[in-house]
Specification:
The protein is mainly beta. Helices cover about 0% and strands about 45% of the residues. It contains no helices and eleven strands. It has strands spanning about 5, 10-15, 20-25, 35-40, 45-50, 55-60, 65-70, 75-80, 90-100, 110, 115-120. The strands form two sheets. Strands 2, 4, 5, 6, 9, 10 and 11 form a seven-stranded mixed beta sheet that branches. A four-stranded antiparallel beta sheet has the order 1-3-8-7, with no helix packed on it. A hairpin with a 6-residue loop joins strand 4 (about 35-40) and strand 5 (about 45-50). The chain starts with a strand and ends with a strand.
Length: about 120
């Protein structure tokens, strides 16, 4: 059973940085895209970024230019480098595996969700 484990969350101030990690034992054998998502308090889960096996990326408009997604296929780890964080970035961040072979930030296209890691940005 494929399982994802997110880590790296924490509390930072406006303008700070965090690096999230997503690990799974079965990830290295699957060539489908993986994505990062977040759920802010009282809101629905939204897409943040995705990356294909070959490294093609996509970002939501709200994080473009501030966040960078990457993956190490050999190690089975995906990362999300988050810079210039804002209070509206606060939420629980999840990683998941796409059910398709194209990159999309639509959470409805993803399976095998992790438990998430909390990110809190204060002003």
């Amino acid at each position: 059973q494929l399982q994802f484990v997110e880590s790296g969350g924490g509390s930072v101030q406006l303008g700070g940085s965090l690096r999230l990690s997503c690990e799974t034992s079965g990830f290295i054998l699957d060539t489908r895209p993986v994505g990062w998502f977040r759920r802010a308090p009282g809101k629905e889960r939204e897409g943040v970024s995705c990356i294909t096996w070959s490294g093609t990326t996509e970002y939501s408009d709200s994080v473009k230019g501030r966040f960078t997604i990457s993956r190490d296929n050999a190690k089975g780890i995906m990362y999300l480098q988050m810079n210039n964080l804002k209070p509206e970035d606060t939420g629980v961040y999840y990683c998941a595996l796409s059910s398709l072979y194209s990159c999309s930030v639509n959470p409805g296209l993803y399976n095998y969700w992790g438990q998430g890691t909390q990110v809190t940005v204060s002003s």
